[in-house]
Amino acid sequence: MCPLGSHNVDDLAELPNDVRIKRLRNLAKSHDSNNNDIIELDELKEWILQSFRMLDREEAMEKLQEEDENGDKKVTFAEILGKRHGYGEEDLPLLENYERGDEDVDVLELINDDKKRFLAADLDKDGALSQEEYVAYFQPYDFPHMFQVEMERSMHDIDKDADGFISMEEFIGENVDDETRISEMTNFEELDKDKDGKLTPDELRPWALPDNEDVAKEEAEHLLNMCDLDRDGKLSIEEIVNKEEEFIGSSATDYGRTLHFVRDEL
């Protein structure tokens, strides 16, 4: 995640100070869900989660525009197939006839993974992904209806002996240096809740589908620690304004970019 406001930090410097501060006040107030002029830890966490979702959607929309060849604001699998892999649907039977080990067979596996993800995201089953459906296709970890297909893909990629479990060696992978091996061993041991030396799909899930909740909680606690001047465990609007630079430097609240779209009259 790029630093908060890294898209617009230079532009922010050009805003008059009073305009910038007024917008920051309004931005903070927009996340004050109980209207008490205080941003509590859970409100700050939700602010950060909202910023993650906003960034995910923005990135997805940029990708949708690239793949939407006919400009109808939807994406078919044929458009994805051509744009990402350079094939038409009529080419797929030919790819299926290649022998395993062929480079085109590896491409076919990627195409099949994309197809499964596409079908899971296409909730109305009309053969095209709307903008909302495309966000789930592009960023599946934030959408529960995408979890099963993503876990199946992860298990297929890592479970080399196809026994339904992930051993430590499978998790670590091949040709890794000593530092990486030690790090991955630690990760494996943390995931292996029942300490039986192998990972079930449920145990692998936090690694395969990382949860933004923990990241948002850590960042919220960091901002609270840095900005809570009176140490009362919450942030007043004034404390946020006084610590503007901390919000600019944050990796989460998207202050720098969002400030350009905040209404001055709030």
Automatic annotation (TrEMBL):
Species name: Biomphalaria glabrata (Bloodfluke planorb)
Protein name: EF-hand domain-containing protein
GO molecular function, one term: calcium ion binding
Pfam family, one: EF-hand_7
Keyword Calcium on entry: yes
Keywords: Calcium
GO cellular-component term (any): endoplasmic reticulum
Domain EF-hand positions: 109-144, 188-214
Gene this chain is encoded by: 106064556
Domain of life: Eukaryota
